[in-house]
Amino acid sequence: MPDGYVRGMPRVTPRVGGGGVTPPDRIWTPPGGEIIQDEFDDASIDPAWTRVDKSSSTYVTWTEAGGVMSQFHTSSASAGGAMHALMRPLPGGTTFPVTVEIYSHGTILRNANYLMMGACFSDGLSLSGTNQLVTMPYCNSSSELSMYMDLRSGNGYGVDVQEVAGGLYGHMMIGLYQQLQWTATNTFVYRWSSDGVNWLSAGSATAQACTPTHVGIWGSNWAGAYATQLGFEYFRVYASDDPAGDVDTL
User: Of 113, 178, 180, 185, which sits with the fewest C-beta atoms within 10 Å of its C-beta?
Assistant: First the structure.
């Protein structure tokens, strides 16, 4: 295309000296409405992020480099199906509708249960007495190259949480766009996409009492003794339940 853009994304450009391409900084940029934005292209992790680890944080390393926030989980098992999250506060007085949008990808050994990653709303940072709503796409050995899109609620930052909206199976993608929307009191919607423009609903639910004060990203290996590698390429929060530029597909 003459303007150098494809569906809002700059074309890739050759690296100086050869050896591949340089990816664009922003995968997809809906216009306006952002109240939080992190493109993960800083020299260090923004101090607004707070780590929350249900089990030992020694298993997990977070790294920000090259426009990606990555999580590496060693092959040690995290007791109790722990979430390992990065959370940050919503601006004071924020209420619904609010949408968090991420682009994520991950790897795990084949036939290992489970690879999990997603977005999270929470009403606090404590490992006790707090409630979370999370998007939980996961793959397992029985579904092989499929991924299940799940919306779940729980507390104490554990992945052993309640399914509140049964999603659907889809072919696993190298990269996955996800939106978690707080649309009304205790009501949340999960949407996902392969291109960041056209969205599929994976379920909505009136869940346990949760008035979010924090929002973030998380990953887990479901307490398995195997390594996982996750990457998040951007994090954006919108003061709306349908960010401009999105197209709903039923």
Answer: 185
209: tokens are 């009492």
* 147-174: pLDDT as tens digits: 555 677 777 887 666 656 555 444 444 6
Q: Contacts by 191-199 with C-beta closer than 8 Å and gap 24+?
A: 191/248, 192/135, 192/137, 192/149, 195/7, 195/28, 196/27, 196/28, 196/103, 197/7, 197/8, 197/28, 197/245, 197/246, 197/247, 198/247, 198/249, 199/246, 199/247, 199/248, 199/249
The rounded radius of gyration (Å) of the Cα atoms in the chain is: 17
95's CB contacts (< 8 A; 6+ apart) are none
Q: What distance in Å separates the CA atoms of residue 150 and residue 152, rounded to the nearest whole number?
A: 6
Q: How far apart are CA 121 and CA 13, in angstroms?
A: 36
* Domains of the chain from N-terminus onward: 34-241 (2.60.120.200)
Residues 116 and 219: beta-carbon distance below 8 Å: yes
Backbone angles phi, psi at 14, to 5 degrees: -65, 145
10 or 56, greater pLDDT: 56
* Separation of first and last alpha carbons in the chain: 29
